[in-house]
Amino acid sequence: MPASPDRLTVNPLHRRSGDPDSISKHRLAETGMEPLTAFHAVRDETMLDGNARLNLATFVTTWMDDEADELYRGAFDKNMIDKDEYPQTAAIEQYCQRIIADLWHAPDPDAAPATSTVGSSEACMLAGIALKRRWQHRREAAGADTARPNLVMSSAVQVCWEKFCNYFEVEARFVPVSAEHPVLDGPGLADAVDERTIGVVGILGVTYTGAYEPIAELQRALDAIERDRGLDIPIHVDAASGGMIAPFLQPELAWDFRLPRVASINTSGHKYGLVYPGLGWVVWRDADALPESMVFRVSYLGGDTPTLALNFSRPGAQVLLQFYLFLRLGRAGYTEVQGESQRVAMHLSSAIGAMAAFELVSDGSTIPVFAWRLREGHSENWTLYDLSDRLRMRGWLVPAYPMPADLEETTVQRIVVRNGLTMDLAESLLDVVREEVAYLDALESPLPRPTSGQAFAH
What we know:
This protein is 34% helix and 16% strand. The chain has helices spanning 35-45, 66-73, 87-103, 120-141, 159-167, 189-192, 215-229, 246-249, 317-353, 384-393, 423-441; strands at 7-9, 22-24, 114-117, 150-154, 171-175, 197-203, 235-238, 262-268, 280-284, 296-300, 303-307, 358-360, 369-374, 400-402, 411-416.
């Protein structure tokens, strides 16, 4: 009997007495199966997933050491919201918050409001709400209306900011990127902001290329706007990736709370924080930057629980893993781990940039991420989408995608180097890239099946 796409076939070697030989994928069966049978059925279903270590598309941590895995297994059941039941997990969350606030030069790290989240997207939402509330409170105190708030950002911003503006009824104002200004660097701000602007988002590690937006230059531009027009506009730094890179690899770079306009910063613990997904962090400069109205105090399981989150119940294990890494690595260890990722990224970008087919868009000297494009006029027979397909056949996931609005005619490929991509693996990847480029360059006509569909979306 042929396999049905609606049913999951159970391997006869894994079936126990009484277990079915197949089961619906889309409807709950009347009876279950033995745990080992269910275990093997699920594991077999995931066999076609890619090798996470060879996934160079994702920023998310795909490997931790054995001690972290053991700690994780022992904390699966901890609910981060239940601070009364798990007071030490709650205390460890505060330890992490203060460590991160100190890394980012908060004026008083012990008093800086902060919270863990399930990822940077939630952290960005909370930071955006705080900007909106602060703007509303100032307008109300001045007797002005609070309609039509707007948020200014680069058109290369991560999609979570578009979600924030959609969900929380804020006008998204995008400053276009261009070949001359591939990031938000000051020009264009004056035309975008007005008295209804709740803030400006600067990105420390643009998703498309890894580039840093110059937060200090954004502050200078906003200082000039305040002098000329009296508009006092704060900055939120979306440091989803760079927030755990810059303090260690570019410690002299002023991007954080050293800049007085920076009101809040977020990062992903599960990206270059080196923790399994999902974990994010958001820190505010001080109590004035976080409206008290955003903090809820609820009675939960017999205790009074202050909560600052969009989610309620969420895992606490990742918070413990973050503290484990802070203890295990320290500042020197994080510097070494992130520095090795950057060394691998720079090696890869240098080798790819030296190939006749390619031209670098970024080189990995900010976060360990770089992108390249096909050199103009190199070939009419293949595109970066074709190369992405060829690499996928060899097990490597290296996405090709168009740049953001106003640069969408440019297609790039990008590699994200994370802890676990060793120099030996990088050399293996370069060998594969050279082989596949040679194959594509040898084509006498375009491939018979077009492969130029977008292979990756942000």
